[in-house]
Amino acid sequence: YAKELESAVSGLVSGAISNLYKQEEEEEMNAAALKIQAVHRGKKVRKDLQEQKEMEAAALKIQAVHRGKQTRQSVDKTRRVKAAFDAFDVDGSGELEVDELREVMAHLGLELTKGEFDHYAAALMEDYDADNSGSLDFWEFEKFYEQCLASDDLRAAYASELDAAVKGVVSGALSNILEQHEMENAAMKIQAVHRGKQARKELQEQREMEAAAVKIQAVHRGKMARKSLVQPPPRASEAPPTPIPAAMSEEEELSAAAVKIQAVQRGKKARKEQEELFRVHAAFKKFDTDKSGSLEIPELYDVLKEVGVDLDRDTFDEYAEALMEDYDEDDSGTLDFREFHKFYNQVLANENTKAEYAKELESAVSGLVSGAISNLYKQEEEEEMNAAALKIQAVHRGKKVRKDLQEQKEMEAAALKIQAVHRGKQTRQSVDKTRRVKAAFDAFDVDGSGELEVDELREVMAHLGLELTKGEFDHYAAALMEDYDADNSGSLDFWEFEKFYEQCLASDDLRAAYASELDAAVKGVVSGALSNILEQHEMENAAMKIQAVHRGKQARKELQEQREMEAAAVKIQAVHRGKMARKSLVQPPPRASEAPPTPIPAAMSEEEELSAAAVKIQAVQRGKKARKEQEELFRVHAAFKKFDTDKSGSLEIPELYDVLKEVGVDLDRDTFDEYAEALMEDYDEDDSGTLDFREFHKFYNQVLANENTKAEYAKELES
Fold first, then answer.
1. What mean pLDDT is predicted for residues 376-387?
2. 3-state SS assignment for residue 627
3. Range with the lowest mean pLDDT among 179-193, 442-456, 680-694?
């Protein structure tokens, strides 16, 4: 260093401590390298997290599709049963009397005489007339349809059993042929309700009856044997004795004993069922304070008190909605006797089930679960969740996956909790919606027939804002029936009206849109007036999902740029300070013959350096950003002009064909309408039926900007 000082003073070297600053620069470079590695690790973590979220979203989407299929299958089944019931209910009384069962017998493949028909009808009523009213209402017929009419095999099996019942081979013709999953569910339900001492008692009674039957047969056979052995021979003067009937065979004795036991069992079962029905009916009458024949929401207060729920008037509505979610199967907003009967058997039958259901209701209302129905009935959802978990485990396995799996389970639990709350809200919204639809239906159904005939549609047209003459009304009514009379009955039942209400009457916008479409349909502009306008909340959900994905990408990009700017600012400041330090150290003193050097400006403080560097970087970044935005705007405008072939300033439906081709969707003219509607649903924010430049700009940034987003959106559209 002494040599370096001498060299510095004599001017042979430009700086005496340059090596000291090289070390500092190396340390800065190492720190920058570490920072870059940290950034890359952060990217990898974010990428893994994004993949995990996408997998969870896919699992949720699969579950949603599966639940949607189940719901549609249930609705289709109910419609089939309703159509069959209406076909057999010739007088339209809402019940099937004995005379109307002749067509049912023919449907079973039984051609009967008048005398035979009476016996067969009596046997059928014995099996399915649960309330002994002498007729089958819709709920009794529904059970009969599912067990006896749903397929050719069931019809043939029940016809055989009816034959056997009438001819005395068996005492009752009730078919025990159920689908496997229904038998398993019924077994689980019976085991849950009838367990413990009651089950052991019934088993003991059955064994005692079987033992008694065997004992009776043994005694009877012994008597017959002794009688045949000790019978004295007849005297000559006496007439021959009356011949003793031959003893029954063992098979005949078994059959007779079995018939006797079955008769006793049926008697006990019938009395037990009758007593239970009396108890349920008495409880129903106690809670049905207004004698309306169904339990409305206010009447559930005493029901919930009976269950043992600790509630007050503030929390009553939530508990009542949770109960309705579990047991109001027809979404009528009330509990009829059949629904209350099911509730009584599963909840009110004993104190244990009351206490369990009270706990489940409290959990449902507090948001921990979506409904209070017992976990015994959620086996299918658990299987779906297990399948999703297995799929995720297959992707993420090894040591690392155990840690990830734990985090995933926590996220799934949180997601399930959120879904539970969301489903609870959806259920309450569904109940409110059904009530609104029912009120509107009753208002239009002037004659109270349960269907809207053509004449009753005049008030519907007025509600749509259409003031029509008599001649115009006929055309408009025909167009409406063409859209919503699914069974071509000439009238709208409640299910058809519900669909019409949701798509056309639920809001002012829907009414105005459907009125316009009806006008177009009647005037020949379109062939049908069926509106494809979906509910607003579905559109918002789809838009929010896409926006959330893109906002996440944008946020990560901005965060990365900000970190790079900060790193660059630190590096510039470090270099600047190093130069200033070296310059101040190696500056030679002035010679006596020379003029004094120009004074060097005082070095800036660290804060001033930071501020100056930040301003410089911001200016550079703003310039880059401005040029980048300008270039992007030119690209978007050029793309918009390319697709806007008619130069109207907006993209209409036909012009979307080339847009979808650009995205990479494999489509033809037959499937184009569906893809175009899906795209409009995502990006037509003002529901104008076209994409203006602002909406197209958003679409370009989120979809057309690069090949990856095109491919992702193409997959979403196809889904």
1. 63
2. helix
3. 179-193
Q: 512-520, long-range: CB within 8 Å, 24+ apart, which pairs?
A: 512/465, 514/464, 515/464, 515/465, 515/466, 518/464, 518/466, 518/476, 518/479, 518/480, 519/466
Residue 5's SS3 state is helix
CB of 535 closer than 8 Å to CB of 430: no
Residue 384 pLDDT level (bands cut at 50, 70, 90):
low
- The pLDDT tens digits for 616-651 are 777 777 878 878 888 888 899 999 999 999 999 999
Tracing tokens 């070296």 back to the chain, one arrives at 582
pLDDT (0 to 100) of residue 426: 74
Q: 545 phi and psi, to 5 degrees?
A: -65, -45
Alpha-helical regions (H) of 313-466? 316-327, 337-343, 351-365, 379-395, 399-444, 457-463
Residue with tokens 């919606």: 433
- Helix and strand element counts for the chain (H, E): 25, 0
Contact in structure between 370 and 417 (CB atoms under 8 Å): no
- Kindly list the distances between the CA atom of residue 631 and the CA atoms of 83, 187, 692, 701, 709, in Å, as whole numbers in the listed order: 63, 70, 20, 13, 20
Cβ–Cβ < 8 Å for 147, 162: no
* CA 381 distance to own-chain centroid: 11
DSSP letter, residue 110: -
Residues of the chain by 3-state class (helix, strand, coil), percent to 5: 75, 0, 25
Angle among Cα 574, 579, 583 to the nearest 5 degrees reads 150
Q: Which residues contact 345 (CB under 8 A, 6 or more apart)?
A: 193, 280
Is the pLDDT at 530 greater than 60, yes or no? no
Alpha helices in 231-308 (DSSP H): 250-287, 300-307
- Give the whole-angstrom CA distance, residue 543 versus residue 550: 11
Q: Once rounded to an integer, what is the mean pLDDT over residues 119-127?
A: 91
Model pLDDT, residue 251: 65
Distances (CA, A) of 233 to 221, 223, 226, 229, 589: 22, 19, 15, 11, 163
Query: What residues have CB less than 8 Å from 306, skipping those under 6 apart?
Result: 287, 348, 354
Q: Distance between the two ends of the chain, CA-based, in angstroms?
A: 75
Which residue did the predictor score with more confidence, 184 or 558?
558
Single pTM value for the model: 0.24
Tokens 């995720």 belong to 392
Summarised one tens digit per residue, pLDDT across range 274-311 is 888 989 999 999 999 999 999 999 999 899 989 998 87
Count CA atoms closer than 13 A to 583's CA, side-chain side. Answer: 11
Q: Are 660 and 682 in contact (CB under 8 A)?
A: no
Residue 210: pLDDT over 50: yes
Task: Calculate the average pLDDT of the chain.
Answer: 80
Residue 74 has pLDDT above 90, yes or no: no
Rg (alpha carbons) of the chain, rounded to whole number = 41
**Which residues is 36 bridged to in the sheet?**
none
Query: Which has more pLDDT, 116 or 63?
Result: 116
Q: Do residues 414 and 420 make contact, with C-beta atoms less than 8 angstroms apart?
A: no
Helix 707-718 / helix 656-663 crossing angle, nearest 10 deg = 110
Q: What span, in angstroms and rounded, lies between the C-alpha atoms of 87 and 110?
A: 18
Per the document, the length of the chain is 719
Amino acid at 594: E
pLDDT in tens, 412-454: 887 777 777 777 777 677 788 889 999 999 999 999 999 999 9
Q: pLDDT at position 714, please? A: 93
- Token digits of residue 363: 């959990």
Residue 504 near residue 462, CB atoms below 8 Å: no
Virtual CA dihedral for 82, 83, 88, 90, nearest 10 degrees? 100
Instruction: Give the span between the Cα atoms of 493 and 441, in whole angstroms.
Output: 9
Helix crossing, 18-88 with 379-395: angle to 10°?
150
